[in-house]
């Protein structure tokens, strides 16, 4: 049974009802747990250690200096006013004796002096001489004639844009071919050719896949003999005409890599041409027109 049921036991250690031994009531602090005791002991020990550290290490602890005292306000009592001296009355000045001014008599009137008018010098008149003007009229500036201006501009335009060569008529072409044949026959009969600085191309044995090109070089003392004869193959060119023109340009550049004069029998005049690489397109177009514009082209002369 619970100890609280032994109410009748009074001060006896044994219950008269059940006969059990009655436990004495717990004293104050007897139920304190061991953990609380340990915690209390540790806390007391820490406080003791802190107090001992502060006592023995007081010289190493940085002490915060107390704040400086602010300036105290001092009240100074005002000084007593000094007694002002009594104002002394000023002595009245004595009136000065007034002197009577003597009146001077007015001066006698002076005689009036009449001045005679002196005749002034008359101003001299300046004579103005006008500048001499030449009666001979100056020649007028040359008037620019409108017609001369138009003619000058027309000539300038023609110089910048040369007119294309006129087309050759059938009669002119026939006459040119006849003259060329006559000149060739005369050269063959005489056995010599006139000296010049040009060359002659001749195309023989032309087919769709090959041809032969004869070229007379720049030699003024040769007879009618072909110095060079090249065989032309179609190769990668689109047609045999393009291959022939390519070979001609190679032969021309071997002799004249720059500017040269071409004696065109198709046009009947000399033409200035260029064998430079940058002028290949223009030279190709000219040679195509020179050799392949007709069905039976004659030899071209340079």
TrEMBL record:
- Segments spanning the bilayer are 38-56
Basic and acidic residues bias spans: 114-125
Keywords (A to Z) from UniProt:
Membrane, Transmembrane, Transmembrane helix
Q: Which residue ranges are recorded for the region named Disordered?
A: 78-173
The organism's place on the tree of life at top rank:
Bacteria
- Name of the protein in question: Uncharacterized protein
């Amino acid at each position: 049974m619970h100890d609280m049921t032994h109410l009748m036991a009074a001060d006896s250690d044994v219950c008269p009802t059940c006969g059990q031994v009655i436990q004495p009531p717990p004293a104050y602090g007897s139920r304190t747990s061991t953990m609380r005791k340990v915690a209390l002991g540790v806390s007391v020990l820490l406080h003791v250690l802190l107090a001992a550290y502060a006592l023995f290490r007081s010289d190493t602890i940085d002490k915060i200096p107390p704040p400086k005292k602010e300036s105290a306000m001092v009240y100074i009592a005002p000084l007593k006013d000094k007694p002002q001296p009594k104002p002394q009355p000023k002595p009245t000045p004595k009136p000065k004796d007034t002197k009577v001014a003597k009146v001077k008599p007015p001066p006698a009137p002076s005689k009036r002096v009449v001045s005679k008018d002196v005749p002034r010098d008359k101003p001299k008149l300046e004579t103005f001489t006008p500048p001499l003007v030449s009666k001979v009229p100056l020649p007028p500036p040359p008037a620019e004639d409108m017609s001369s201006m138009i003619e000058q501009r027309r000539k300038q335009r023609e110089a910048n844009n040369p007119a294309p060569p006129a087309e050759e008529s059938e009669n002119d072409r026939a006459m040119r071919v006849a003259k060329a044949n006559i000149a060739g026959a005369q050269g063959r009969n005489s056995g010599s050719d006139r000296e010049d600085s040009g060359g002659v191309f001749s195309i023989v044995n032309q087919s769709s896949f090959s041809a032969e090109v004869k070229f007379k070089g720049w030699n003024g003392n040769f007879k009618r003999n072909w110095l060079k004869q090249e065989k032309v193959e179609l190769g990668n060119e689109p047609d045999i005409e393009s291959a022939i023109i390519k070979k001609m340009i190679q032969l021309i550049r071997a002799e004249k890599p720059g500017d040269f004069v071409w004696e065109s029998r198709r046009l009947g005049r000399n033409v200035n041409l260029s064998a430079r690489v940058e002028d290949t397109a223009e030279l190709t177009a000219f040679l195509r027109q020179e050799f392949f514009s007709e069905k039976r082209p004659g030899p071209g002369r340079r």
